[in-house]
Every structure is written in C-alpha cells, then in structure tokens.
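Page 37, continued from 36.
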C-alpha cells in the first residue's frame, strides 16, 4: 500500500517484503529516469551509477557510506528508491538529503 509522506509531499512510501520503496512523485515516466538518477546522486553527493534496462523497468545501484540503495523506474510506480526492508533510517536519510528537513 502506498502512503503519501505528509512531511515530504513530493514522495510516497511503499513497504513490501522485499524492501521500502520511496516514490518520487515528480519523476513519473520512463523518460524521467536519467533526470531522476542525476537528481538523487547530486543530492547525495555520490557517483552516478550505470543503469540497467529491463523490459518494464530500469534500475541502478547507488553505493552510499551507510549502505546501498537501488534507484528504479517501474511502470506501476514511476521513479523510486528501494532500500532493504530493515533500512527505514536509510530511506529517511535519502528523503532528507533530497528535500531537506521536514516542514511539519
């Protein structure tokens, strides 16, 4: 189930058994994926990864000092970042890096 992050209205969060997905609502289309990658890596101040194209999705693994995240595009969600199911703190760090401290 997707939940809008009230502190960060430009994102939504989906929790699934295979990870926590942070959906970036401004990046909805397949064509947005490279701009999305550029946005995320510039905010996190890390190197831009190589992306892999799949039939209905794209993905790129981004290495961070605190762990690994996967930037993804999928037809169902648009552009998102996936972290491991037990990495909520890493998911929160990514959102704060991209959009600053919460306004609420």
């Amino acid at each position: 189930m997707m939940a809008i992050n009230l502190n960060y209205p430009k994102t939504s969060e989906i929790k699934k058994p295979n990870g926590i997905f942070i959906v970036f609502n401004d990046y909805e289309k397949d064509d947005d994926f490279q701009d999305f990658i550029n946005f995320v890596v510039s905010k996190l101040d890390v190197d831009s990864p190589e992306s892999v194209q799949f039939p209905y999705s794209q993905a790129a693994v981004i290495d961070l000092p605190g762990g690994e995240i996967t930037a993804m595009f999928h037809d169902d969600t648009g552009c998102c970042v996936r972290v491991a199911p037990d990495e909520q703190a890493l998911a929160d760090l990514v959102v704060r890096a991209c959009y600053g401290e919460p306004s609420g």
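The beta strands are 2-4, 11-16, 19-24, 52-53, 57-64, 67-74, 78-83. Flag for discussion at group meeting. The first strand starts at residue 2 and ends at 4.
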